[in-house]
Specification:
single chain, alpha/beta, 7-stranded mixed sheet, binds S-adenosylmethionine, SAM-dependent_MTases_sf, SAM_O-MeTrfase, methyltransferase
Length: 217
C-alpha cells in the first residue's frame, strides 16, 4: 500500500483540533448558535474556517468573493484575515440567517469589509463585469451550479488568484455510480474536469467535506 491520507477517528480528530484550532469566543458562539438550526451542517468546519483565513494571508488577498454565506462563519474567518482595506462580496439568498451573519460581523468589527448581496448567485455574478478583480473566490452554495461557478471564478480571478470549492467529497456520495441527485452529478463533473483543466494548478484536500484549491494560471 502506498502512503495515503490518514483516516481520522474521533480521538485523532479531537487531537487535531486540540493542538491546532485557534478559536475565539465569538466564533465559538456563532458555531453554537448555528448548531441549533436544522441546516447546521451547512456551516464549514472550524478547521476549514481557520484554513481559509490562512489562505487569505498566504496569497495576500484583498478582494474576496464568497458564493454561499449562510450564518456568515466562513466570511467572518476570511474577513478577520484581510487587511483593513480588504473586502468581501458575499452572495446568498434571502433568509433568516442573513441577520445572524450581519450581527456577528458587526460584533467582530468587520462589518464594513463585507457586502452581502441577496439573490440567486448567478444573477449577482452576471452583474460583476470586471475580469481579474478578485484574489480569492470561495464557492459553497448550490452544488448543481458548481461547474458554472468555476467559469465565473476563472473570469473574475486575477492570475495567481485562488478558487476554493467546499464539499467536493460530498460525504462520500461522489462514489455513487449513477446518482439521482443533480448536486452529486455536478460535483462529480467538476472533480473530473478539474483534474485535467489546464487553466489551473490544482489540489483536492480531504479537509472537512473535501476542499479543492484551484490557482488560476
Ligand atoms: C453550505 S451554505 C454556506 C455555508 C457558509 N459558507 C458557512 O461557512 O457558514 C450554502 C448557502 O448557499 C446559499 N445558496 C444556495 N443556493 C444559492 C443560490 N442559487 N444563490 C445564492 N446563494 C445560494 C444558501 O442559502 C446557503 O446559505
Amino acid at each position: 500500500m502506498t502512503t495515503r491520507t490518514l483516516n481520522l477517528d474521533d480521538a485523532l480528530y479531537q487531537y487535531m483540533l486540540d493542538v491546532s484550532l485557534r478559536d475565539s469566543p465569538l466564533k465559538a458562539r456563532l458555531r453554537a448558535e448555528t448548531a441549533l438550526l436544522p441546516t447546521a451542517r451547512w456551516q464549514v468546519a472550524a478547521e476549514q474556517g481557520q484554513f481559509l483565513a490562512l489562505l487569505v494571508k498566504l496569497i495576500g488577498a484583498r478582494r474576496i468573493l464568497e458564493i454561499g454565506t449562510f450564518t456568515g462563519y466562513s466570511a467572518l474567518c476570511m474577513a478577520e484575515a484581510l487587511p483593513v482595506d480588504g473586502s468581501i462580496l458575499c452572495c446568498d439568498l434571502p433568509g433568516d440567517y442573513n441577520a445572524t451573519a450581519r450581527s456577528y460581523w458587526r460584533e467582530a468589527g468587520v462589518e464594513s469589509r463585507i457586502e452581502l448581496r441577496l439573490g440567486p448567485a448567478l444573477e449577482t455574478l452576471a452583474e460583476l463585469d470586471k475580469p481579474g478583480s478578485f484574489d480569492l473566490v470561495f464557492i459553497d452554495a448550490d452544488k448543481a451550479n458548481y461547474p458554472t461557478y468555476l467559469e465565473h471564478a476563472l473570469r473574475l480571478l486575477r492570475v495567481g488568484g485562488l478558487a476554493v470549492f467546499d464539499n467536493v467529497l460530498w460525504s462520500g456520495r461522489v462514489l455513487e455510480a449513477n446518482p439521482e441527485s443533480e448536486d452529486t452529478r455536478a460535483i462529480q463533473r467538476l472533480n473530473r474536469a478539474l483534474k485535467v483543466d489546464e487553466r489551473v494548478d490544482y489540489s483536492l484536500l480531504p479537509l472537512g467535506d473535501g476542499m479543492s484549491l484551484c490557482r488560476k494560471r
